[in-house]
């Protein structure tokens, strides 16, 4: 590794960072992370903090998961790569598919289509949904429904169903035929409704209304996160996702659960869909499937959808889609080891306990601080605070002030994530109670600095 002087001098000079303005990265150089152990990361100056971001929602087992590291190393020695396009496969993807089939059986999902990551998984699910209806003889079903505030990656299809203008405006025109429903977001919604159950029903009515307006026979799928993540950690009322499932089933619309964030225990349940008692038709996964150690993902497919493809005799079910790294043997080996360790540690239970602890801690901060307008969480290790300059008007806080909270929190022992007016927490699922308290005390120091 180059010395620290070189790294600091060249930081952001030749790199454009995702989700950042190139000029801003040059004026405010990113933190240079050079090491990690357990749930802690270390920067180029040797400063160590608890990682309240969990890499990027994906390092569920922390940075020291030896079984996954060992599996990657061994697979690189044995078979570092081979394609699984038609005619070839590898042993790891076959074994992994059987493990995933067992893991996702309660979700009604039994087939895996491998991808390179979350955005790829979303793109794959959107495409398979359209193809499913074509194979069934309903080629007019081409439209997609999704939630405002939802996040579904950055490919053109994913950006088109995204519900946040930040990921859309500069890239339009996007995919036609994508329509958005109000999110069950009690702090800000067009109905001015703060009761979660009533808001869920209003959003479901809006979904029914949009389906009637578009025509059910024109809609391929509804895509949604069981708990909206990057949009600010927005958990719906428990009636909402089951209501969406019922409406989709009634109208012959496929339900795609985007569980790139929520699968593998983050919500305190093994999947977000299971958390709400719902079986989707397709599920997008990635991130925690390899603990973030290797880019890999899988779209899980229900028996009913699989049957339409597998029984086709017209040729329309031939899948003209895939990635060079679909079913990468190193990624599959990593996923096998990661899934085994995820189950052995039963991380969903710790996620539920530590998530409740963090959520209560954030609510205590809110009680003391008027600039915390809303606290969201209570479903595993995904929490958020929405900061405002005025509680009465809900005017967002100045960017410089929220950045100061983040910086002082970092100097005080915790990395947290800023997204718009939100401070988001998504730490590893192996977080301890002591680690959670470090995050909370670091946040308080950040707020005290204002």
Kindly describe this structure:
The protein is of the alpha/beta class and 450 residues long. It folds into two domains: 31-64 and 346-448, Alpha-Beta Complex (Aspartate Aminotransferase, domain 1); 67-345, Type I PLP-dependent aspartate aminotransferase-like (Major domain) (Aspartate Aminotransferase, domain 2), CATH 3.40.640. The chain is 40% helix and 16% strand. It contains 15 helices and 16 strands. The chain has helices at residues 4-10, 22-27, 54-57, 66-78, 91-103, 118-135, 156-161, 196-214, 240-251, 272-275, 303-310, 329-345, 347-368, 399-411, 433-448, and strands spanning 33-37, 40-43, 48-51, 109-115, 143-147, 178-181, 219-224, 254-258, 282-285, 297-302, 372-376, 383-390, 395-396, 414-415, 417-419, 422-425. The strands form three sheets. The protein has a seven-stranded mixed β-sheet with strand order 4-10-9-8-7-5-6, sandwiched between helices. β5 (143-147), α7 (156-161) and β6 (178-181) form a beta-alpha-beta unit. α5 (91-103) runs parallel beside α12 (329-345). The protein is globular and about 65 Å long.
């Amino acid at each position: 590794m180059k010395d620290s002087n070189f790294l600091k001098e060249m930081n952001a000079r030749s790199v454009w960072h995702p989700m950042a303005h190139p000029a801003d990265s040059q004026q405010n150089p990113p933190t240079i992370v050079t090491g990690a152990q357990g749930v802690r990361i270390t920067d180029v100056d040797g400063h160590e903090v608890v990682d309240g971001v969990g890499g990027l929602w994906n390092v569920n087992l922390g940075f020291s998961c030896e079984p996954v590291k060992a599996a990657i190393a061994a697979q690189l020695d044995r078979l570092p790569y081979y394609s699984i396009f038609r005619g070839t496969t590898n042993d790891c993807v076959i074994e992994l598919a059987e493990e995933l089939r067992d893991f996702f059986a309660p979700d009604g999902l039994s087939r895996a289509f491998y991808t390179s990551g979350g955005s790829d998984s979303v793109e794959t699910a959107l495409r398979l949904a359209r193809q499913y209806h074509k194979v069934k003889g309903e080629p007019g079903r081409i439209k997609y429904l999704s939630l405002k505030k939802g996040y579904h990656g950055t490919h053109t299809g994913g950006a088109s169903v995204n519900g946040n203008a930040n990921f859309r405006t500069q890239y339009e025109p996007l995919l036609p035929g994508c329509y958005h429903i109000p999110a069950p977001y009690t702090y800000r919604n067009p109905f001015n409704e703060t009761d979660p159950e009533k808001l869920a029903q209003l959003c479901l009515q809006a979904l029914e209304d949009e389906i009637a307006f578009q025509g059910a026979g024109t809609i391929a799928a509804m895509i949604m996160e069981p708990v909206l993540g990057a949009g600010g950690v927005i958990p719906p009322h428990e009636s909402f996702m089951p209501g969406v499932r019922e409406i989709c089933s009634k109208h012959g619309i496929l339900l795609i659960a985007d569980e790139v964030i929520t699968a593998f225990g983050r919500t305190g349940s093994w999947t977000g869909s299971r958390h709400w008692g719902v079986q989707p038709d397709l599920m997008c996964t990635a991130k925690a499937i390899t603990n973030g150690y290797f880019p890999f993902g899988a779209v899980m497919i229900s028996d009913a959808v699989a049957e339409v493809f597998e029984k086709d005799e017209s040729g329309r079910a031939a899948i003209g889609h895939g990635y060079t790294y679909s079913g990468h043997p190193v990624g599959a080996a990593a996923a096998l080891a990661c899934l085994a360790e995820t189950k052995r540690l039963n991380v969903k239970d710790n996620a539920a306990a530590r998530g409740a602890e963090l959520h209560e801690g954030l609510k205590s901060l809110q009680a003391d601080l008027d600039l915390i307008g809303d606290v969201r969480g209570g479903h595993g290790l995904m929490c958020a605070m929405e900061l405002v300059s005025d509680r009465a008007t809900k005017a967002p806080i100045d960017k410089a002030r929220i950045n100061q909270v983040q910086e002082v929190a970092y100097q005080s022992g915790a990395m947290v994530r800023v997204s718009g007016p939100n401070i988001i927490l998504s730490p590893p699922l192996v977080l301890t109670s002591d680690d959670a308290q470090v995050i909370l005390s670091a946040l308080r120091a950040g707020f005290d600095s204002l």
